[in-house]
Amino acid sequence: MEKDLLGRGSNFSALFTVFALVAFLFTTASVASAGNPINGAKVYQENCATCHGDKGQGRGGPDGWFTGGGMAYGKSNISDAVGNTLNDQNFLSQTSDDFLKQTIVKGRSNERMPGGLVSGSDVDDVVAYIRNWQKAASIPVTDDTVWANAGAGKELYLESCGECHGKNGEGIEGFSPALNDQNFLDVASDDWIRQTIQRGRTSSVMRPYERGNPLANVEMEPREIENVVAYIRTWDKNNKPIPGLNN
């Protein structure tokens, strides 16, 4: 009897190990990009590297020109790149493949990034190539709407964000991205924007705004960050706010 129980225990242990391995492989496969990064590298260099840099460094990063105050980099080599930094670990860890795909396909309406430069399976391949730069673990980002005080958020935005991103979110070409851009607002969820404000970017002067973060220049309470998100969302022409909840 004891022998039989031991045998069953061993079988159960082996079965559990198999199931755990299958679950791990399934999870890994589900977060991996489906494209071909080898072809993606070629397509990226042909269509994206001029603005975003050959290594995704853009105007930030160790080879970009805009590194002053960056959290991770201390040197500022001259670069002609003017696009956003794509190899930024905070950006990659919170940005889904679908976000990247839609950005590549649609481009940005208020910036020098036209849509349609890359199409078909090449889009998946470029995403797979970009995803190879990610070292930090991915973090969950929801599609939940942030209901907060957009009026209070406007004041905070003008005080802490407007200098770089523009009074009306128009951005500064070659310096900071436009936030008042419909293609951006279509793909960026409230939580994605919230986490960007909270965590900042490791490769530019955009420090985190999270209270208690030693890297923050300006500290905001969680509700204050949500107020800023609510204000940015007022620029979204496809958003239908509920009266009394988002103002």
Write the CATH homologous superfamily of the largest domain.
Cytochrome c-like domain
Biggest β-sheet strands, sense, barrel: 2 strands, antiparallel
Provide the gyration radius in Å. 21 Å
Work out the count of structural domains.
Answer: 3
Structural class: mainly alpha
Strand content: under 5%
CATH T-level fold name of the largest domain: Cytochrome Bc1 Complex, Chain D, domain 2
> In CATH, what is the class of the largest domain?
Mainly Alpha
Sum up the overall morphology in one term. Answer: globular
The number of strands is 2
User: What count of helical segments does DSSP give?
Assistant: 11
What is the helical fraction, as a range of percent? 40-55%
CATH architecture of the largest domain: Orthogonal Bundle
Order of helices and strands: HHHHHEEHHHHHH
Contiguous low-pLDDT stretches (5 residues minimum) are 1-31, 61-78, 243-247
Care to describe what's here?
The chain is 47% helix and 2% strand. By secondary structure, it is mostly helical. It has three domains: 1-31; 37-131, Cytochrome c-like domain (Cytochrome Bc1 Complex, Chain D, domain 2, Orthogonal Bundle), CATH 1.10.760; 150-233, Cytochrome c-like domain (Cytochrome Bc1 Complex, Chain D, domain 2), CATH 1.10.760.10. A two-stranded antiparallel ribbon has the order 1-2. The longest helix is centred in the N-terminal third of the chain and has 30 residues, at 2-31.
